[in-house]
Amino acid sequence: MVSPTPPSAHVQGNCVAQPRLPRAVRMVSLRAGQSDSIRQRPGETIFLKGGEQVKPFPPHPDLQPLTPTCNPPCLAAAMPPGVSPGPEGPSAPAPSGRAGRRAPPPPRRSPGLPEAKRRGRARRLHQEVAELQDGLQHLDLAAEKPVPSGTGLAYDKELTSFHCLWDKSFPECPARLTSIWTKLVEDGLVERCVPVQARLATEEEILLVHSPQFLALMASTADMEEGKLRALSDTYDSVYLHPNSYHCARLAAGTVLAVVDKVLSGELRNGLALIRPPGHHAQRERMEGYCLFNHVAIAARHARERRGLQRVLIVDWDVHHGQGTQFIFEDDPRVSYNTPSVLYFSVHRYDNGAFWPHLPDSDSSAVGRGQGCGFTINLPWNQPGMTDADYISAFLQLLLPVAFEFQPQLVLVAAGFDAAIGDPKGQMLVSPACFAHLTHMLLALAGGKVVLALEGGYNLHSLTEGVSAALGSLLGDPCPPLAGPAAPCPSALQSISKALGIHAQFWPSLQHVEVSALSTEDEGVEEALGETGGVPSPVELPCPEALPSLEAPPPRRPPACTGLVYDERMTQHYNMWDSQHPERPQRVTRALSRLQELGLERRCLRLPPRLATEPELLLCHSPEYVARLRATVGLRPRELHRAGSRYNSVYMCGESFEAACLAAGCVLSAVDAVLAGQVQNAVAVVRPPGHHAEPDAACGFCLFNSVALAARYAQQVAGRPLRVLILDWDIHHGNGIQHIFEEDPRVATTWQQQQSPWPRASGHCWETPHWPHLQSWHYPCLHTPSPVLSMPSAWPALCTVPTGPAFVSMVLCSRYVAGHMVAHGDASGHPMVLSFADLSAWCYDCEAYIHHPTLLPAKILAHRLKFGNELPALL
């Protein structure tokens, strides 16, 4: 029988019906001496019944699976009685009688285990391809949308034409803008930006947020004398007015709108509006806190009502709460698809209400009203001195999960820099470099459509440095390094934990996060220190004027941004016995072709490929293992098959060793280019993969652990202490990387992989006591009835017959969190536990997963508690 082949195929001999095989694979049963009559097509592998293999030709792109050439059942049904189809067509009627009876056919031999595995893999591959095609049928992957480029920068000298007439030392002064512009020119950032012409906001645009009465009042200030201006200013909180205030406020609002329009039209990728007066404190009918018109709120309404956007995210990192923006949108009745169209997030100093603007609405309990409930997120800091780690934790733990769930189409940032170190009002300790990191994290949202509008910031040194760092991030520069490893303070963790608990009811992305509250000792300390937690009051805290940490020069930009390394010789590594093996040469050739189609390859700097040397391979692998792989060069196919079968899921051919050395060497070449400053980052398109390879064994298609070698190589060639982070987002756990570095404190590894319901063995994990910020994020242990099993003492490690049923004891955390379950097992002698995640039972005594009918009652209970229905009968 010949399974799917082109029409030109012709095989002499008897064909036996077999299940369909994947394209380019044939199983042929022939009489003796007929092997020469096989016609083989390019890319086809033929297996004879005796196990002999015909070497395949190179694959042909036009080869398609067709119907079998043997006689189908429909042909037999169409024949007259007594006539059966044969290889050459219908045969004559068989003679009747005993003498004419045809001998019964020989019994069909069942396929061997390798063939059965191959057929099953082919069926699974066909099913996976069908599911992938079904999932992608609505996506247009051929037509790529043009990506906007360029960062807009809007600035107008007219914005410096107003100041406080009766207080020359007022902190909100024209020098804020002029000093920023001077700094951006010195850093060479202005010439790299696309200039955006400032304009006045129209009255219709201002009325999108503010009332007509308030607009008329502001317009009247242009003709007022100084006495009337001061009298009117005194009726509001922290406001001064100037004859040019109305004109400059309109110009500031219009400038933000000009940048937003450029970004939304695709002319720019992102932008920065250098404006004053600020705006986020201004309410619908009230000026407040140096703010006259609420520019960011006007821009959000404009984007929604004039540009048709459905979801806008406003991020306010000014040290003061933007109560004006919150009040405008907290009960906004305009919704899109039953969802409010504006999400407001503010991180600000609160001090339990003691910090301006002294409003209960600034606390995390204010979540919006009506249809806007849940779309106001406040993260209040209750003490001064918050650092980079506190702000970055707030973004990572609270803002970004919600933002990715919200999927905004535009991000507007009320960019105040009064939380920077040295600011006399904020009294925080945030470095200017931190604002580059915060901006960089926001660029992952809304397709990069991010617009920053200047708000506060009153220390000219830290203000200019912070704006420069944020603009550099908008331009795509690498984020400046932070001071060093740090953890959020207990007060910050408490604020984040409280906000998470409040908003988990509104956002599913937060519902899986459970953070423990402060311990009893911490609560006692908080009570003893009072409401401010023992931190000096704003008047007592000194304001540092000398900021030596800000004098470090920005990192030098490499001449090229991204490097790319690839070598076609890596395709010589292939599976000689299975052309449909998932780890095949097309993985890298197709990837490179796609990069070329998208025009990404020509934008990269091609790096030279090279082979990894033996001393480099010995950085992670043993000499004996390297020698074993080197010995595979020149082996015959049968010996190569035997060599690969020694390992788990590994195949080898004569060129495998060279391809593996080339894959590792290309990754090392990328490391060289990055460390030398030749490129900012790099991509290595390589195979075979590497993260499963152990120090002395191949595993999971992997021969040499390329990433582990790169980490060790970087530490060696850097010539200085180097901390390396390895992020493995492969769906399979990188066991090789973990085992190589599990005792190396210089390399941190993190994985995101799928966990099988019944893993054969667990990995070796250890807690990280030197990272204190992880200790506060442990899941709590609840002493409530739930599926954790305690078996009778007559069943130690399932070695004897159980004498009683399993029963529920308590919930405790695993060895990978705080190890409370292990401690409970040692103290109580209860070695059996049940995972609520996959209903698997684990025995701590025998270190293995087990199953027994005695466990079924507890599993049925756990399944009912988790899913609300009964456990299927098949389990």
Automatic annotation (TrEMBL):
SUPFAM superfamilies: Arginase/deacetylase, RING/U-box. It is found in: Nucleus. Residues 77-124, 518-538 are annotated as: Disordered. This is Histone deacetylase 6 isoform X10. GO terms for molecular function: histone deacetylase activity; hydrolase activity; zinc ion binding. Residues 760-869 form the UBP-type domain. One of its GO terms (cellular component) is histone deacetylase complex. It holds the Pfam family Hist_deacetyl. Its main location: nucleus. Residues 82-93 have a biased composition (Pro residues). Residues 520-529 have a biased composition (Acidic residues). Belongs to the histone deacetylase family. HD type 2 subfamily. One of its GO terms (biological process) is epigenetic regulation of gene expression. Keywords: Hydrolase, Metal-binding, Nucleus, Ubl conjugation pathway, Zinc, Zinc-finger.
